[in-house]
Structures are given as C-alpha cells and as structure tokens.
Amino acid sequence: METKKKPRIAIIGGYGGMGRFFAELFAKEGFRVVITGPTEITGREVARKLKVRYEKDNSKAAKDADIVMVSVPIDVTLNVIKEVAPHVKKGSLLMDVTSVKEKPCEFMDKFSKEGVEIIGTHPIFSHRVGSLEGQVFVLTPIRGEKWLHWLRKFLEKHKVRVFETTPEEHDAVMAVVQGLTHFAYISVGKTLERLDFNIKESRKFSSPIYELMLDMIGRVLGQNPELYASIQMQNPRIPRIHEVFLETASELCDSVKRKDEEKFMKIMKDAARHFDDVNRAMGRSDKAIYSLVSELDYLKDSLGKELCLRHIYSGKIHLGIVKSVTPETVILDDNGKVSELKISNIQILSDDDRIKHKMKIRGVVSRDFSVILDEDVDEKFILELLKNYDENIAEGEIKDIYRGKQIGEGKKSVCFGLELIDSNVKETEEKIGEFFRRIGGRLR
Length: 444
Description:
Blueprint: E1 8-12, H1 17-28, E2 32-35, H2 40-50, E3 53-54, H3 58-63, E4 67-70, H4 74-84, E5 93-96, H5 102-111, E6 117-123, E7 136-143, H6 146-157, E8 161-164, H7 167-194, H8 199-202, H9 208-221, H10 225-234, H11 238-257, H12 261-275, H13 278-301, E9 306-311, E10 317-325, E11 329-334, E12 337-342, E13 346-348, H14 351-362, E14 364-374, H15 379-387, E15 393-402, E16 411-421, H16 425-438, E17 442-443
Parallel strand pairs: 1-2, 1-4, 2-3, 4-5, 5-6, 7-8
Antiparallel strand pairs: 6-7, 9-10, 9-13, 10-11, 11-12, 14-16, 14-17, 15-16
Helix pairs in contact: 4-5, 7-9, 7-11
C-alpha cells in the first residue's frame, strides 16, 4: 500500500501474549498503535511501557483503525469478532491471530461491512520468541488484495516464512500439528507425574534424545493451560485424531503385553514407511543434539575467558568472565558481580557483538601514542594492524607525522590517536607498547 503515513493499528486484546508482542513490534516500527483489554489499570500500564495508546472500548478502537487485529483467547474470539467487525471501516483490514481459522474467518466475513478486507492469520510461534526472523506465519485470505500485499511485504521484510492456504486446510493440518503433538506431550508429562518419576534425577542417565524429548514436553507444559485447552477443544477435527492415537497406542501396548514381536515390528515398520524420509529426520535431530553438546563444550572451553550471553526471553545481556559451567548452568563474573544463568535460557553472542556491547556499557577513553618509525614504514598499514591487534582498541587515526633533527635521519615520529574501551586500560596500553616494540618502533 502506497502511503506516506503509516497505518493506524488497533490490537484488540493487545496487552498480553501475542497481542502485546505485535503491539511492541508495530510501535517500534513507528506505527500508530492502540491496544484494548478488559482491565483498564493493566492496559494503561502496558500502553505506557510500549509507548502506545490504550482504549477500553473495543468498538471505539476499531472504528478509526486502518488495521484491526483480534488477539484474544480462542474461546472468546468469535464473540469479540462479532462485537468489533461491524465497526471496521471500509477499506481497512480485519485480521485475527487465532490458532483455528474456519470459524473466525467465517465470522469476520459475516459481520464486517462490504469493502473491509479480511485475512485470517496464524503465527506459528510463541510470543516469547523475541523476533519474527525465521518464524512461520500462515495466511488464510478471505477478501481483498491491497492489504494482503502489504502484510506479505511487512512479514518478508522481517524474514518470516509466509505460507498461504485455506481456513479448512489450515485446521485439518493443525489438528495434527498442534492437536496430536500437544495431546501426546501432555499425556507423557501427566504419566511421569502419576508415576512420581524423578525427572531431574533421570537426566543423569539420559541420552541427548531423551533430553530433547523432556525439553519439548516441558516447553508445552510450561505454557498457558487455558490456551492449550482451547486449541484442543475449538478445532472440531481434533477428537477424531485423539481416537486414532489412542487406538494405535492400545494396539502397540497389546503387542508388548502378548510379547508379539512381529506385530510390534510391523507397526514400527509401517509407521517408518509412511514417515517417508526417516534419514532426513535423523539428520535434523543429529544437528539438534550436536548443537546442544557443542554449546556446552564451547562454554567449558571458555572457562576464564570473557563471554557475552543474551537471555532469550528477557533480552537482557550479561557480560563477564566464565567462572563455572555445569550441564545446566553457567556462572559469569563481571568485576565481582556474579550471575548464574540457565544454559537453556541463553544465547551466546558473537565476539563482534560482545565487543560492541562492552563498548556500549564501558565507554571509551582516548589515548595518544607517539612512535618513532623508519621513514619507509607505511603508517597507514601499521594503524590497520594496530586496530586488529587487541579487541579493546575501538578506533584509531593518524593525528600527526613529524620529521626533524631530534628524531634522527631516516626516521619519523607518528602520533597515533586511539580510542580504547574503558576496561583494563592499563593492560591495553602495555599491549600497545609491546606491539610497537615488536615492529621496531620506539615510544617517545
């Protein structure tokens, strides 16, 4: 959509979960954002933090917006759509971010005015991801082209993987993708609870695959139970999926009880044949395992070294010397300030990002170094070597070149102006002095 002004966006239910995620994202992009929600105190506090506007009345928020995004619990989505859809103005976009698509799309189409564009959407990720990059976004467009083009362009700019389908196909696939997997993981979690099984203790004896399985189960169990109940109960295709799953589990269980190896193997072989590319699955899982192991190895190899770690949920960055590493935690020491972090919650930043962060929090100091060099030495080349010699050298320039009797014949005095990260400055200065001595220079 060609326009100088960025669209006005109303996010119905915008102070929690996915709604808040998009409110923050759109606000950072410079959009004019209004959020709604039933609790005024919470809404105004979130709006203040995100630097957006709060409106208690859903219909009032919707009527002035160019884009109306419905982001409320699944079980109230249809009622909210019925409430706000008639107030969305002609030429605007009405969209939802619900994990089921048939009924929400039907209601948006039924209750909105002619000329309102409608797109059902399903962001297939948690609001905790922090960034859209690499995430999957499903679109089920119902009416209009203008806003569909705008939305695709916006998502692709953020490097999102966008897929377009029908509401019917979406719900059929999601009955398995979400309905079956969540059901299975929750069932395993509940089984462990009924067995009074010590999960933490079991990790000591576990393979990487078992660790991954526990983490996936824990990830599901750690989410909002109300959301997961709604996912199971609002998609009418899911009960049939459950029936087939339970029939299959019963059949497999029966083969074990009767010690029928042939039956057991047939079930497993048939499943593998239908799975098609088990080698690809092994390769992907091997990569996941390697990633877990290599990260731990990297942290262990970094004992005594400086690292920068980002908390994947809060976004907070921790800088410090690695003091201790266990399979579950890493301890950083930042000049006496000790932080113990769960390895599962951190991302190791690159050296470049670490240095940038260190420069940001420590600041820089200026130092001049006057060095006598041979006349034929290329001082520009020396400066480039110097800037790459130590990571605490942030920037540098040649401030002056002097030749004279007191310098000596065939010699010149070069003044290098350097910006040093304000961390162990004396040590950095000593390293710089050693550098000049090694290349045959003499500090004045």
